[in-house]
Design goal:
mainly alpha; 64% helix; 0% strand
């Protein structure tokens, strides 16, 4: 391919495609340079280093993912919103394994603060959970519960780790049902104080 026209955005998009093909951990500047038919040094005019490139892919993928989730949950609330959120999350993770892996890396907090995608993800996720009547610190705890459940399930499913004959989709649906029940019946505690118990 011609050297002309290389930009940080083009390199990031190509790296994201490469991540889905060969795995995010296998994306390198050398592989990207070969893709464009240029020397490795040519890329440093557009990205600082491999970490910079991977961060750009993570932010790109995070934006794509939250766009899909936002479209899915629009106009929904409660269990309908949770189900739509979960399904959009799973669909993206399975369709774009390399991109999805990129969304799991730790990003410098200064970049997180400046990222519209990260802010939008927080707004949509916390907004959905506030509909369950949750406030801090329960909101953060609930976000961590959802993220760990979704990520764990998708990671296991993508590697074929579920060997039982039970349909994987049906188990996913039941898991989302269980999360909804947990959110509705969330144990609201403040500073470790046990809430008053109902009289018998």
């Amino acid at each position: 391919m011609a050297r002309a026209g290389l930009t940080a955005d083009r390199l990031t998009a190509a790296a994201a495609e490469l991540a889905d093909e060969v795995g995010f951990e296998n994306v390198s500047l050398s592989a990207l340079a070969r893709h464009f038919g240029v020397k490795d040094a040519s890329l440093y005019s557009h990205v600082r280093n491999l970490q910079d490139l991977r961060t750009r892919v993570a932010l790109l993928a995070g934006g794509e993912m939250i766009d899909r989730i936002a479209a899915a949950v629009a106009g929904r609330a409660g269990k309908d919103a949770l189900t739509a959120f979960a399904d959009a999350y799973r669909d993206y993770a399975l369709a774009h394994p390399g991109r999805y892996a990129a969304t799991q890396i730790r990003i410098d907090q200064a970049l997180v603060a400046d990222s519209p995608a990260v802010r939008r993800t927080a707004e949509i996720t916390y907004g959905m959970l506030r509909a369950y009547g949750l406030e801090e610190p329960d909101l953060t705890d609930a976000v961590r519960l959802l993220r760990s459940t979704f990520h764990g399930y998708c990671s296991l499913e993508s590697t074929g780790a579920f060997g039982a004959p039970r349909d994987v989709r049906r188990s996913w649906e039941r898991a989302v049902d269980a999360l909804h029940t947990a959110l509705v019946n969330w144990p609201r505690k403040e500073h470790g104080v046990r809430p008053p118990q109902p009289t018998r």
